[in-house]
Design the sequence.
């Protein structure tokens, strides 16, 4: 097999992307080693070291794939999926196969490899979040895609292989069962209660207040009740909407502000931990049934930030259950600055 | 909170064990460092360094908590859950709480800290697997428990914090939704087809043969069709039964043989990778409904062995989808010895 492929088995019901090309990455089958000291492929002036850009925010007089950009989006050099080709789903007896079609892009958040995302100005961070939107709106035109997801890996404990600040965007030809589970639970809640689960969680968090960390005009930042990771954070928008790409520029500015605050507080309390930032948004298109219409009302896009200290071990992998050593009420007190570390 | 507690939120539907006591473990909030060179608490002669043993296979003239044992089971010094106390489930508005009752035991597989499990003789490995059974049968008497699970973490990449060969057993007061998902899919398959999903998977694997690695009188060893991890292995028993504790001594001997073979082949092909070994068995007790009776026929205990190279990153955590760089047909050819590394 040289083509990437999605596979599913009926016992685990998880899709797995088989991406043989990624095996060329140096850190495979070895501890991840951060590439610092070597030539930075994401730095300004090194544009030739990446595949040609698909999008950039750059000065008017600059040219594509040359210096002068503020945010730059390029295809992943080691993509898990391929953009070219026909989407073909095929049964294989008990099993399922789907061609490994998808987009896998890298959002380079700054030309300066020495800066972390939270060290940029709020307007510069907002430009990164605007770039996510622009890519989503563009990829939405490709009818092969069902789900777009943006994530950021920082530090080796979180799976990062490059130091230069970047995030990744994937467009998938399926809605993963894990995501479908969240959508279904949100929908069931809506059908039963005639209220959004996301609004109800925010209502509870505001009423109990013990897990709230901060808020601004557009967002609440809190430590979730059943946080899977120590010092896990969630960002829920106050204005309920399923699609991240529908955010206004004010909401992007406010998101930049709350993400910067969250990362700075994590850095202060935990001494620059590795972390993943996860941006969840509704599926792109659904059959035009009542189910579709409802899903769009009952789901809200949201952000999770999960600091990463321990590996997933046999307990987590076999049970889908997590062990967390820090209760979220304690984490919130540290992050609010009420307790000194 | 000083008592451990299970929590669930309605969006993720995953139970999280909050275990503040484990925070005293040295590797928390830092990269896991294997304790070699320091005093080995699991070595023969150091029995005083562990909590008193709950079970041991030892020479007739030896006494508990003294040398003379071959396999020794002790409570985990840093338990995720506590064995003492009343099981109390309580609603908390949108959220769920359950007291963190549970057993968390360590099975010390050999008195000799220099030996890996696969370096023991087949009868000695069978004694380790017999000890799992003995502990399951004992803990089954405690009506607070719903699910027993055994796992083994080897190497820092797999979450191990001690070098000395050991496995862990947990008895939980709930069936995790991830496990319930597997049970439900197996049951649906049985109800629809009147055949076990596990038997059907074995039938397919034997027919296609490309992912088979080995077999003996009691087991098939194969690389699953949708392997989540490179070189992942599954061991399915030929005699279909839900409960691992119902295995005969011949079946335990044969399991020791196939596990030893699998680990030796992984060591040869991948140079002693970190790995998790996961032992899945049916829930302990279910309401006496038709559902229960059916679940007991349609489910089969099984073992998974998953080598661990990369951290879970933002892609896996947010989507529940895995990227695997090695197709199982290739992994099986390496493990069968048809291709040299």
Sequence:
């Amino acid at each position: 097999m040289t083509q990437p492929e999605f596979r599913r088995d009926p016992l685990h019901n998880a899709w797995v992307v088989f991406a043989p090309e990624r095996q060329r990455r140096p850190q495979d089958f070895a501890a991840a080693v951060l590439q610092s000291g070597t030539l930075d492929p994401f730095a300004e002036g090194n544009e030739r070291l990446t595949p040609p850009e698909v999008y950039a925010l750059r000065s008017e007089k600059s040219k594509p794939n040359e210096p002068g950009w503020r945010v730059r989006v390029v295809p992943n050099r080691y993509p898990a999926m391929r953009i070219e080709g026909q989407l073909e789903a095929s049964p294989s007896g008990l099993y399922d196969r789907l061609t490994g079609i998808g987009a896998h892009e890298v959002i380079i958040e700054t030309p300066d490899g020495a800066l972390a995302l939270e060290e940029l100005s709020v307007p510069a961070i907002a430009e990164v979040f605007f770039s996510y939107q622009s890519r989503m709106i563009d990829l939405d035109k490709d009818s092969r895609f069902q789900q777009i997801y943006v994530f950021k890996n920082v530090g080796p404990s979180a799976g990062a292989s490059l130091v230069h600040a970047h995030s990744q965007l994937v467009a998938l030809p399926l809605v993963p069962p894990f995501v479908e589970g969240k959508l279904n639970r949100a929908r069931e809640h809506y059908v039963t209660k005639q209220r959004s689960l996301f609004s109800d969680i925010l209502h509870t968090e505001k009423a109990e207040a013990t897990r709230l960390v901060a808020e601004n005009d557009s967002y609440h930042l809190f430590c979730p009740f059943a946080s899977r990771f120590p010092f896990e954070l969630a960002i829920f928008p106050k204005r309920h909407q399923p699609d991240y790409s529908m955010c206004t520029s004010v909401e992007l500015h406010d998101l930049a502000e709350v993400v910067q605050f969250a990362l700075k507080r994590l850095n202060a309390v935990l001494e620059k931990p590795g972390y993943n930032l996860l941006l969840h948004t509704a599926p792109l298109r659904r059959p035009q049934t009542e189910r579709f219409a409802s899903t769009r009302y009952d789901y809200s896009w949201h952000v999770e930030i999960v600091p990463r200290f321990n590996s997933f071990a046999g307990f987590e992998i076999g049970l889908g259950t997590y062990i967390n050593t820090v209760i979220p009420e304690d984490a919130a007190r540290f992050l609010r600055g009420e307790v000194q570390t």
